[in-house]
Design brief:
about 375 residues, mainly beta, Immunoglobulin-like, six-stranded antiparallel beta sheet, five-stranded antiparallel beta sheet, about 10% helix
Length: about 375
Amino acid sequence: MKIRNYIVISVLMLFIGSCITQFIPETDEDQNLLVVEGLVTNEINGNTIRLSLSMPLGKKAVVKPLRGCNVTVTDDMGSTMYFPESSTPGIYRSASQGIIGRKYTLHVRTNTLTNNYSYESLPMEMKAVPPIDSIFYEKIKIADKTAWSPLKQGAQIYLNTYDPTGTCKFYRWDYNETWEFRLPYSVPVNNTCWISNNASVINIKNTSVMSEDKINRYPINFISNETDRLKVRYSILVNQYSLSEDEFDYWEKLQNVIQEVGSLYDIIPSSVPGNVFCVENPSVKVLGYFSVSAKTSQRFFIKDYFSGIINLYSECIADTIYGSAPEISGLNITAWILEQNLYAQPPYTVITNIRGCADCTVRGTIVEPYFWNDDNR
């Protein structure tokens, strides 16, 4: 009886599984909405406008750059910034510099056969932003030491900032992190590399309800032991931006949606209204936001010992062959020599068929960052 029931249930599950199809709801929404990701700051070469088109519902979220547009930004004093398209499709850049206190408006002409519209943003004021007071970190215990594993530690990075004038009140931060890593073998070349990575989360803070415009111990980034960021040396460049109350509301709504559906690099949800509109037809929906922010930055380094950091190369070693490399014959051509010790008796070579185990450029670059020796601790 039990066997018969098991067979019946198995057949039903197989039948039900074969009937599952993807459900894509019907929608009247345009599948090629303009997506604007713009930022004008008070830094030279810090101004970028990224234009793309949204993808149809149910399709994989990939960037569909919008090429050949005319992009300018004007201010309330009659000046114009020109944004020619860069070598990267859909990315428009300007070497101009924004001025604190002025209001800026984005202008886009798409110049396409299917979408030949003019778009504008609301005027956005560039508010002053204070410098970052300090960046620091604390070691965090992730898991206690056991009989089978060591103590596991990570790092929580914080920042402090303060605006004595009380004019900023709305803040946003992003960051770029860089870390050095080394292969755990004496590889003749490409043993040490660096990786850089941009922030993939939204960091914002509102101080308007506080007694003073002061932020202490804001948790900007947490680094776990499941990465080798803290293995050798780590650096983070934190950028601090001023926001208007309207822009803060935009980022807050986007943050709430992202926590439910995905990451910062997914397509911007249409439920989050921006500040760009179509001139000819205001009913045409536009996604994204044109940001105008003053910007300050600070770089911070971590060089410390953290217990329990994962070994990303634990599966690399495939075999050990005794003898010097020229004497070894019959090796598979996919084998990569990892380590050769000419002083051992006899010399030996460790091999693997995984290129990343012998060449750090599979993950990073051998070009040392220009700022890597700025910190002498």
